[in-house]
């Protein structure tokens, strides 16, 4: 039963299957008012306990609404100018930076990366033919299953992110398989640094943020660089608790910080001429290996069949979403300061899109509340059973001699499961890498019970053997 429960919980965070445009006539978009947005977001926060969120909605070249709601992890109000983490939405910024170099003739998408970035060395000779396009399409052959990018020691710079690939191998031949892998975009960002001669953060500021008036946006290397406004929460038993982001490197793949006002400017820039038409076409053209993933953008459709272009982002304590509806000219961005296990940004985005399409948002839910209650009760029961086991340890020892003492081993089963959590996750998540502490961020109530059970089992085992 425990294994089944663990499997069900792990499967809950697997990335959903790609959504392709449905064979339906898209509905006409309805005008959405700031008051309707405010009412929906505040109702969502009240029902879910979401601490803070920023929302931007544009139509064409105009901002329909941009606002912040609630508070940051440090207790400050979330405003229209509050920088928050956009996580993997950052990949759209990285792909644009590469395309700007393509426009200047400094980079060709179908040439090998190593021609621009000689330091890009791997233990696999096939890496020599990886192209720039394959990095951005996530078809380079690099994958979590072959290179444990999260659980290995983390770099502190883009140069270090590339250098640690020296002993890595590919999971597949370049250009044959799609595999979502953050290192692809870290290599791409390092390429931008080397070709442009500017640090990646300086490049984005000079060529993207400043020209668009994104005064509250930047990009950072690691979780240590996150300002208080970009830190997030874990939710347990329906209550949000401010927590530091686990250790990790994200520049190029997930390091951008932005505000509601700045994300509105970014969404407008996708179709106002800032990005040349030919570049837009390249950015929105998917690979043959995955027809729903382009260059830092995902191609899909809403539940009503409206074609969309977007990208989501997940940290362990915050999430973000961006979406463009080309047919109506609408664009939406959401940044929430709760982690990937709760998908608040995605739920809010879906609700806002439903309003834009003239429908009604689905009622918000707390997907782990019942599970949290179950594991909280199991934790209390574990404390009780451990106390009982210690109190009766002398009687247990008196009844067992010789090999009979091996009956103490079942008490160590939770400890064994504790040690096996990350390998189990990797199997259930189809090779996705993770650190042990990160599993705790995904399933805090479960991991609290498991650690309690492991400690209790060790204590009971030791006391019984001493007796």
TrEMBL record:
Transmembrane region(s): 368-387, 407-429, 441-466
Source superkingdom: Bacteria
EC code(s) of this entry: 3.-.-.-
Keywords for this protein: Hydrolase, Membrane, Signal, Transmembrane, Transmembrane helix
Keyword Transmembrane carried by entry: yes
Signal peptide start and end residues: 1-24
Residue ranges occupied by any Beta-lactamase-related domain in the UniProt entry: 37-339
A matching Pfam family: Beta-lactamase
InterPro entries: AmpC-like (IPR050491), Beta-lactam-related (IPR001466), Beta-lactam/transpept-like (IPR012338)
Gene Ontology MF term list: hydrolase activity
Protein name per Swiss-Prot or TrEMBL: Serine hydrolase domain-containing protein
Organism of this sequence: Nonomuraea mangrovi
């Amino acid at each position: 039963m425990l294994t089944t429960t663990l499997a069900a919980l792990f499967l809950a965070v697997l990335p959903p299957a790609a959504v392709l445009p449905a064979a339906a006539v898209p509905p006409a978009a309805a005008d959405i008012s700031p008051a309707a947005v405010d009412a929906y977001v505040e109702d969502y926060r009240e029902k879910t306990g979401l601490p803070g969120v920023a929302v931007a909605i544009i139509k064409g070249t105009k901002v329909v609404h941009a606002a912040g709601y609630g508070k940051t992890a440090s207790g400050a109000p979330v405003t229209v100018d509050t920088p928050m983490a956009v996580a993997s939405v950052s990949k759209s910024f990285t792909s644009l930076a590469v395309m700007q170099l393509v426009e200047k003739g400094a980079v060709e998408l179908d040439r090998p990366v190593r021609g621009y970035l000689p330091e890009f060395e791997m233990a696999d000779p096939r890496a020599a033919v990886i192209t720039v396009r394959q990095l951005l399409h996530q078809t380079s052959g690099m994958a979590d299953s072959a290179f444990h990018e999260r659980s290995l020691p983390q770099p502190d710079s883009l140069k270090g992110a590339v250098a640690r690939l020296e002993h890595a191998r590919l999971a597949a031949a370049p250009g044959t398989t799609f595999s979502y892998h953050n290192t692809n975009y870290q290599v791409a960002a390092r390429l931008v640094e080397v070709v442009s001669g500017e640090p990646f953060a300086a490049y984005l500021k000079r060529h993207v943020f400043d020209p668009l008036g994104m005064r509250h946006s930047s990009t950072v290397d690691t979780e240590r660089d996150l300002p208080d406004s970009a830190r997030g929460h874990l939710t347990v038993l329906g209550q949000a608790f401010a927590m530091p982001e686990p250790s990790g490197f994200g520049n190029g793949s997930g390091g951008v910080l932005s505000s509601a006002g700045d994300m509105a400017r970014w969404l407008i820039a996708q179709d106002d001429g800032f990005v040349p038409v030919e570049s837009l076409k390249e950015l929105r053209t998917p690979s043959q290996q995955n027809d729903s993933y382009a260059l830092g953008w995902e191609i899909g459709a809403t539940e009503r069949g409206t074609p969309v272009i977007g990208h989501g982002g997940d940290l362990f304590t915050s999430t973000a979403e961006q979406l463009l509806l080309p047919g109506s000219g609408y664009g939406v961005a959401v940044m929430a300061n709760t982690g990937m296990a709760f998908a608040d940004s995605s739920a809010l985005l879906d609700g806002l899109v439903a309003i834009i399409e003239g429908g009604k948002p689905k009622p918000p839910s707390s997907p782990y509340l019942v599970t949290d209650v179950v594991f909280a009760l199991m934790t209390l029961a574990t404390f009780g059973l451990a106390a009982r086991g210690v109190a009766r340890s002398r009687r247990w020892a008196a009844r067992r001699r010789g090999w009979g003492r091996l009956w103490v081993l079942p008490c160590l089963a939770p400890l064994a499961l504790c040690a096996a959590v990350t390998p189990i996750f990797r199997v259930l998540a189809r090779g996705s890498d993770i650190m042990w502490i990160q599993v705790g961020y995904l399933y805090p109530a479960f991991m609290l019970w498991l650690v309690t059970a492991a400690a209790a089992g060790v204590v009971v085992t030791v006391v019984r053997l001493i007796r």
